[in-house]
C-alpha cells in the first residue's frame, strides 16, 4: 500500500516516483497500459480459463485502485462501468495505477449464470482463496494475490440477483475509517453499513487492509444506462478523492443516509403465495401504512387478495421484479430515513418534479447544481 494513503491528496509536488505494477508473469511500467488475459484455471479439456484485466499505470505516483465486476456471471451493469473507465476515459494525467477487472467469473459469464457452473460455487464467497483447495478458491486466490493484494483500495460492482432489482447504493464496513472514506467518496445517496459475509471480496480485501466497497446497482442480465452513468460519476469522485485524477472534484450526491443497526430496515416478505401487483418501485419513498403491493391468485378473487403495507416510512432500496412468489419470498428491502434526510429527499423529489414539469411545458429548466 502507498505510504501516504492516510494523507489527503493536495495535488502538490511529491518526491516519490512511480513504480512498475507487477504480477505473476508480467509487469506494466509507469506511463504504460496493458490488456491482459490472465490464466486462473482450466476447462475440462485442459484449455486455459483467462480473465480480462486492464492495467493503467500512470506516469505519476499515487494509489493503486482496483475496479471489479461480474464476480457473479450474470451481473452485467458493472462490466460496462469498468470497461468505460478503462478504455473510454482520459488517464494521461493519472497519478497512480488502475487495475480494471470487468469479468472475474468467466465461467459464469459465458453461461450467463450467477455462480460458477462447476458444482454451483459462489466465487464471491471464496476470497481470498487458497492454493490446493476447491476450484472456486483456486480462482479466487489467483485473482486476489495478483490483482487485489497490490492495491490500496477497491470498488466491486454488483447487481441484485435474478428476479429483483436494487437502487444504486454502497455497502461498506463503516467502522473501518479508510473504508468509510471510500464509501463516502463514491457519493451514493444510500450506504448500508456492515462488513459483509465471509468470503466476499469486499470483506476479505478490507480485512487485508485494502479498504473496499460494494456498489449494488440494478438487476442481472442487462445494461441499465442511467445506473451505469451514475456509477461512473461515483468512480470519478473516488479517483478525485484519492488524487488519481487531481484535476477532478469529489461529487456530493445532494443527500446521504448511512443505514446501520440503529436504523429501521427490513426485507418485507410475502405471507402468501401468488401473483404480485407491485404498486411502488425501486428508489421510491413510501409512507407508513401505504400499500406497497398486492398478492392475488389466478382468479383475482377479492376475498383472497393480500395487501402488503409499509411498516414504517422509508426508501425502497431493493424490489421484486419477478411477479410470482411463494410464502417467505422477499418483496422489497425497505430502509428508514432520519428526519433531516427525509426532508432533503422530499426537497430533491419536489425539485425534480418541478424541473420535469418545466421541460414538458417547453420552458427552460433552472440549473439545480
Automatic annotation (TrEMBL):
The keyword Transmembrane does not apply. CDD domains: M14_ASTE_ASPA-like (cd06251). Pfam families: AstE_AspA_cat. Residues 1-28, 350-369 are annotated as: Disordered. InterPro entries: AstE_AspA_cat, N-alpha-Ac-DABA-like, N-alpha-Ac-DABA_deacetylase. Its cofactor is Zn(2+). GO terms for molecular function: hydrolase activity, acting on carbon-nitrogen (but not peptide) bonds, in linear amides; hydrolase activity, acting on ester bonds; metal ion binding. Residues 354-363 have a biased composition (Low complexity). Keywords: Hydrolase, Metal-binding, Zinc. Residues 61-240 form the Succinylglutamate desuccinylase/Aspartoacylase catalytic domain. The keyword Zinc applies. It comes from the Archaea. PANTHER family: BLL3975 PROTEIN. This is Deacylase.
